[in-house]
Design a protein that fits this description.
VanY-like_core_dom; 39% helix; 141 residues; alpha+beta; Zn_M74/Hedgehog-like
Length: 141
């Protein structure tokens, strides 16, 4: 994870905790090899590359490769990590209201223009010019 992303995340976690939301990192930077393993697991689970690609980026195409993306969970509700039910947690509610102040945005909200499955746990840092440039195309589709 890039230094400025980590610093912003740490500050966000500390401020969330003061508000009673306990945000934890679930997954940050991922290399192409690890993403390949995760994608292969999804192919095995879903039965095809096409169905796997609806829920997992193929290797070389994940925001996690950039060092600016992070999957976020709720420390009090670990069963919701990387699950749709994360959106029912205090951490998700806090993130929705406050994450932009720290430079974070939900990568794939409901009905996103990229056509990517909704992932309430997947956030990206766009708080620096370098990070904003990385995601400029995706943000302006």
């Amino acid at each position: 994870m890039h230094r400025e992303t980590a610093q912003a995340f740490r500050q966000m976690v500390a401020d969330a905790e003061r508000s009673g939301a306990y945000i934890v990192p679930v997954s940050g930077f991922r290399g192409v090899s690890l993403q390949g393993e995760l994608f292969e697991n999804q192919i095995a689970r879903k039965g095809s590359i096409q169905r796997a690609a609806l829920v997992s980026a193929p290797p070389g195409h994940s925001e996690h490769h950039t060092g600016y993306a992070i999957d976020i969970g709720d420390a009090d509700n670990p069963g919701t990590h990387v699950e749709m039910s994360f959106e029912q947690t205090p951490s998700f509610r806090w993130l929705n209201q406050n994450a932009p102040r720290y430079g974070f945005e939900l990568s794939f909200p409901l009905g996103n223009r990229q056509g990517i499955s909704y992932e309430p746990w997947h956030w990206r840092y766009v708080g620096s010019s370098a990070s904003a440039n990385v995601f400029a195309v995706a943000r302006n589709l």
